[in-house]
Amino acid sequence: MNLIKMKNKKFQFKTNINCGGCIASVTPHLDQAEGIREWNVDISDKNKVLTIKADGMNEEEVLDIIRKTGFKAEPWTE
Question: Which domains does the chain have, with CATH numbers?
Answer without folding.
Answer: 9-70 (3.30.70.100)
